[in-house]
Give the backbone structure.
Amino acid sequence: MLADRFTELFNRVKPDIIFLPFMIDNHQDHIAISRAFAKAYKNKAVEAMVYAYSVWTTLIPNVVIDISQQWEQKKQAIDCYKTQTATRDYVTMAESISKYWSVVKGKDTQYCEAFFRATSDEYVSLVKKIL
């Protein structure tokens, strides 16, 4: 079970920061990740900052970070998902979203990443209320 795997990982690694798809992202696997995170948190509380990101559904971020220096690495990472990129141009999608957030940030950036940042406790509380 995914929650059990998260619990094992959290016990072993004790992360300070956790990145995961935003809880209401429009993909069942992305929603399942937030549910599993909440269950793992119940089993063994993790004191970490959660940075939730969007893939399919936009979010209202409380953090926007300049990723201009990392854009090429992000593009290469997306290209690794051959089965997904065979049917859709995820690189262009990610690039467009990153450029949009750079305009929103408005500080001479080319690419930005938007996150909903919360403590693990705050994020789990929201997951329980929303999902």
The chain has six helices and four strands. The first strand starts at residue 17 and ends at 21. The helical segments are 2-13, 28-43, 71-79, 82-85, 90-105, 120-130. Residues 2-130 form a domain with the Rossmann fold fold (CATH 3.40.50.10320).
